[in-house]
Amino acid sequence: MMQNIRVAVDAVVFGYKDHQLNVLLIERKVPPFQGSWALPGGLVLEHESLETAVERELQEETNVTIDYLEQLYSFGKPGRDPRNRVISVAYFALVKPSHHEIKADTDAQDVAWFPINELPELAFDHHVILEKAKARLRSKLTYEPIGFDLLSTKFLFSDLEKLYMTILEKKIDRRNFRKKILSFEILEELDEKVSEGRGRPANLFKFNKKQYFKLQKEGFLFDIK
Amino acid sequence: MMQNIRVAVDAVVFGYKDHQLNVLLIERKVPPFQGSWALPGGLVLEHESLETAVERELQEETNVTIDYLEQLYSFGKPGRDPRNRVISVAYFALVKPSHHEIKADTDAQDVAWFPINELPELAFDHHVILEKAKARLRSKLTYEPIGFDLLSTKFLFSDLEKLYMTILEKKIDRRNFRKKILSFEILEELDEKVSEGRGRPANLFKFNKKQYFKLQKEGFLFDIK
DNA sequence: GCAAAAGTGTTTATAATACACCCATGA
DNA sequence: TCATGGGTGTATTATAAACACTTTTGC
């Protein structure tokens, strides 16, 4: 009747980089699945909270500190880890890739950003976790302003638009999209212009988080179809 | 470095009964919190899946079998159980109360349905779990046809309407609500009428699950504001 | 015949969609 | 001057919201 189940955490960390959605993976240094790519994560220590465990593992394995973190789902099927029974509480995280320098350490041989459409085979049941995270990202993008946690602090409207098109996998009308987002009045238009190679220089924008929280309290709902 | 963490499951079981939203609770037979009311649940066995554990505990403690079950959230703060560190994976369940006879057994001294607004003090952090479940119920009700899992197979339109008003905590226009739900074409109007004490007898309806799945495949989205 | 709950349509306001041309820059 | 990406407005359609009287029954 005595239980012998371990508890781990894993993190799906998304970032938008090179006009693509990317995921942060580590290359495992130790068995099982030595040399395979996997989600960053590991066993929870006796006296730390689940969130602390995620943040510690991310720091140790990838040198990334997280901007946005929420619990995703718990995976506990017997046999998902070949050694012991392990329940993994998976987390969903967003970072601005340009703000962090990734670096492998402790259990990780290497760390890298992988574009979502060029993923290697993953260890354990991590592809299942990743699918769940993609679904969460897709649905969350439509009713919370989490897109801004994936972009740099200052960003181009066209990047926001590309981000939405990439993640939602559909075309978006540029005029309608811009009109709608601007009507929310949660963006600041900066006085800086950026010339991306060729074409007319574009204005930089900044997400006004304070303003968003204020409007939210007043009953405003962020909603992009 | 050796972990000593246990894994449990708990279930928040909702049912609509006597024109009110109810939750299924058990009275604990053993310490800690002996004699307190709590969510049904218990430790996961070594070789069973999390879902199996929930179903087993519900069967053992309450004699209820579930119509709808999904994972809710995992609670793992150190100290939430006074004895050991316990991570609890909470589940969200819906039943048609009229279809089950509840009965206490094993670890439970008693089982009862409690109207959501007349809850006793709960053991452990179960009030936090319950709040999370209420939030899930509220949001899910608007984009999935889960209301039908709470009512009897044959139900009155007025009960569906009351259910929505109770859970969403707002007034709903009867005409607009009926028009919208009927426009989905996922209900069957039966040829039976029921006289609820006084007033004009009402028609019974039935949720057509097959039709819903068919429409869903074709891209239909259930959506009630 | 009256109290109680069921049933039913139309009008108005708001939000979503479709759609095409000019602008500023670098090569 | 041309290719490239940035910026902008209006008309149409679809959806949501507001709103009140008639019907059927039990007492």
Helix and strand arrangement:
Two copies of one chain form a homodimer.
Chain A lengths: L4 E13 L2 E9 L8 E2 L2 E3 L6 H13 L5 E8 L9 E10 L13 E8 L10 H18 L10 E3 H12 L5 H11 L2 E8 L7 E6 L1 H9 L8
Parallel strand pairs in A: 1-6
Antiparallel strand pairs in A: 1-2, 1-4, 2-3, 2-7, 5-6, 8-10, 9-10
Chain A binds a DNA duplex (27 and 27 nucleotides) through α4.
Short description:
The structure is a homodimer of 225-residue chains. The first copy, chain A, contains five helices and ten strands, in the order ββββαβββαβααββα.
Q: CATH class of the largest domain in chain A, please?
A: Alpha Beta
Relevant CATH superfamily of the largest domain in chain A: Nucleoside Triphosphate Pyrophosphohydrolase
| Contiguous uncertain segments of 5+ residues of chain A | none
Radius of gyration of chain A, whole Å? 19 Å
The appropriate CATH architecture of the largest domain in chain A is Alpha-Beta Complex
Describe the structure.
The structure is a homodimer of 225-residue chains. Chain A has 225 residues and is of the alpha+beta class. Chain A folds into two domains: 5-126, Nucleoside Triphosphate Pyrophosphohydrolase (Alpha-Beta Complex); 151-217, Winged helix-like DNA-binding domain superfamily/Winged helix DNA-binding domain (Arc Repressor Mutant, subunit A), CATH 1.10.10.10. Helix content of chain A is 28%, strand content 31%. Chain A has five helices and ten strands; from the N terminus they run ββββαβββαβααββα. Chain A has helices at 50-62, 126-143, 157-168, 174-184, 209-217; strands at residues 5-17, 20-28, 37-38, 41-43, 68-75, 85-94, 108-115, 154-156, 187-194, 202-207. In chain A, strands 1, 2, 3, 4, 5, 6 and 7 form a seven-stranded mixed β-sheet that branches. A three-stranded antiparallel β-sheet of chain A has the order 8-10-9. The first copy, chain A, is elongated, with a radius of gyration of 19 Å. Chain A starts with a strand and ends in an 8-residue tail after the last helix. The interface between A and B is medium-sized, with 22 and 22 residues. Chain A binds a DNA duplex (27 and 27 nucleotides) through residues 156-158, 173-176, 178-180, 195-203, 225.
